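Entry for adenosine-5'-triphosphate complex. Fields follow.
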Amino acid sequence: MLEVADISVAYGQHRALTDAALNVGRGEIVVILGANGAGKTSLLKAIAGIVACLPGKRVTLSGRDISALPAHEIVEAGLALVPEGRGIFADLTVAENLLLGANPKRARDGEAARRERVLSLFPRLGERLGQTVRTMSGGEQQMVAIGRALMSNPDVLLLDEPSLGLSPLLVRELFASLRKVRESGVGLLLVEQNARESLAIADRGYLIENGKITGSGTGTELMSNDAVQRAYLGGIVASAV
Ligand code: ATP
């Protein structure tokens, strides 16, 4: 559904990403693993049209070429980003954040049903519709961020380190919710440092090192890959994971 090729990003003289390519199918969870500074955030932002790319970028969504679209039209095309740090409106309530998420034209039909779906995915948000987001816990704020992105009726959701700062219990809850999102046919592209939990729910994944994609495989393959074991899983054998 989402196909990306030849994405290169430079910040001044610093090359952050070189010729990155990946794809995400309908209802598929794909994880990108990489160390700090490897280029993961740059990759998501480049796909979402938020950072400028070097010439050559190719992004197609459901067969439509969206490479040259500005960020807001990329959202209209069906791609939503939940940025690192969540990007929510902290001084607004949960209900207001969800309403803002439904602003794209593609989201206006079926808004009420979509809101019900988001509230059934994250029942806590339903109990807190009038609460100012700033006063919520980190886990709840992450639910608001994902809920708001889902309100835009995306075909593919990009998530930048959604588990950051959450307790192990909340990470598990969050990832269980992402599985449910996938069941609705939305494709998920997930940047994560939490390799163990994310590979457990991933259909496939990519490894990124120093701005280059250096490996890929199914979640199970990556879980038992030596480099992944050493770098992200503390060398524990896959059978014990
Ligand atoms: P992290 O996990 O630490 O967030 P990352 O894999 O998401 O890292 P990026 O944020 O994409 O990595 O950064 C890739 C490289 O580009 C890093 O060396 C970073 O310092 C650099 N970089 C990112 N944004 C900018 C910017 N706006 N200006 C200059 N350099 C940048």
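NOTE: The longest helix spans residues 168-183.
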